[in-house]
Each structure stands twice: as structure tokens, then as C-alpha cells.
């Protein structure tokens, strides 16, 4: 199953990028060998980056997808400790906000080494039970339990700060 998915992705990506067929076959052979040895395989940075861009491009619920090829992809799969994780989050926010000239930016952590992020976005509006959009009510309750005292629909940078506070206590 994994090899089938990898083959589909690699063929799509490498074909879209006009790679020679021999390069595609070589990469598929490398992936098959790695899967046979480890049960998994590691994307190259180019595969990681293009895969993230393809995912955005193919997301039919996002109007911003029209700019998929401008996505900046940060590979943070090497991050293994909390302090480096926090530093990378700070860097992500700085790069993405870009001096108030927002740019599309994604940081990708290792699925096995990164700490758990409980909210689906680090910076998000608060969610309340009787609000127009209560989608973030669970994380809002957690933030309030941890001491946040925000008002109405204030942008919760506090989630980020509480998240960092929680990480530092681990």
C-alpha cells in the first residue's frame, strides 16, 4: 500500500517537473528498497516541498491555493528537542508574517519527533459556545484553564504563548 502511494506521488511529481524516466525509475527503486528495509521511506527535500505545494494546490476548500507554487517550505524534520522546536516556531511566525507582508509558509516537522500541537493552528481566533464560529471552543477552554483571560474574538496569540509555556514544562 505504501509503495503504491509513493509510486503514484513520485510519478506525478517527477512527470510534472519533466524528469527523465530513468531518474523516476531510479528514485522508485530507492524508495522500494527503503520500504523493504524499514517499512517506510524518507522524502527528499524536493519531494517534501513539492508534496506540500501539491497538497495546497489540490485543496478545493482553500481560495489561496491559486498561489500554491509560491509556498515557502521549511524542512524541520531534524528537530528533536523542545527548545529547537520553540525556536523553529518563532522563526516560522517571523518568516510567515514577513514584516506585515504575509507570505505563504509551512514548516514541516518529523511525525515521530515533534511535540504534539493540540490546536489546528497556533494563531487563531478564540472559539466560544455561542459565537458565530465556535470551532476553537475546546482549545479556548484549555487556554482559559491555563490562565488566559481574553475577550470576545481577540486573535489568540495567547494560545501560542500558553503552548510554549506548556512545552517548557515537559
UniProtKB/TrEMBL annotation:
Residues 61-68 form the Nitric oxide synthase (NOS) domain. The keyword Heme applies. Gene3D superfamilies: Nitric Oxide Synthase, Chain A, domain 1 (3.90.340.10). SUPFAM superfamilies: Nitric oxide (NO) synthase oxygenase domain (SSF56512). The keyword Lipid metabolism does not apply. Pfam families: NO_synthase. GO terms for molecular function: metal ion binding; nitric-oxide synthase activity. Coiled coil: none annotated. This is Nitric-oxide synthase-like protein. InterPro entries: NOS (IPR050607), NOS_dom_1 (IPR044943), NOS_N (IPR004030), NOS_N_sf (IPR036119). Its EC number is 1.-.-.-. It comes from the Bacteria. The gene is nos_2. Keywords: Heme, Iron, Metal-binding, Oxidoreductase. Signal peptide: none annotated. One of its GO terms (biological process) is nitric oxide biosynthetic process.
Amino acid at each position: 500500500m505504501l509503495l503504491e502511494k509513493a509510486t503514484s506521488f513520485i510519478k506525478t511529481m517527477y512527470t510534472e517537473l519533466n524528469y527523465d524516466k530513468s531518474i523516476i525509475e531510479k528514485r522508485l527503486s530507492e524508495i522500494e528498497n527503503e520500504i523493504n528495509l524499514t517499512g517506510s521511506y524518507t522524502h527528499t527535500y524536493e519531494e517534501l516541498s513539492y508534496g506540500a505545494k501539491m497538497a495546497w494546490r489540490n485543496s478545493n476548500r482553500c481560495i489561496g491555493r491559486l498561489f500554491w507554487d509560491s509556498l515557502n517550505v521549511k524542512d524541520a524534520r531534524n528537530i528533536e528537542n523542545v527548545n529547537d522546536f520553540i525556536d523553529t516556531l518563532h522563526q516560522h511566525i517571523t518568516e510567515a508574517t514577513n514584516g506585515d507582508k504575509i507570505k505563504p509558509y509551512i514548516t514541516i516537522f518529523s511525525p515521530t519527533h515533534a511535540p504534539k500541537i493540540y490546536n489546528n493552528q497556533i494563531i487563531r481566533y478564540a472559539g466560544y459556545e455561542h459565537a458565530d464560529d465556535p470551532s476553537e471552543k475546546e482549545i479556548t477552554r484549555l487556554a482559559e484553564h491555563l490562565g488566559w483571560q481574553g475577550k470576545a474574538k481577540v486573535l489568540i496569540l495567547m494560545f501560542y504563548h500558553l503552548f510554549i509555556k506548556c512545552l517548557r514544562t515537559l
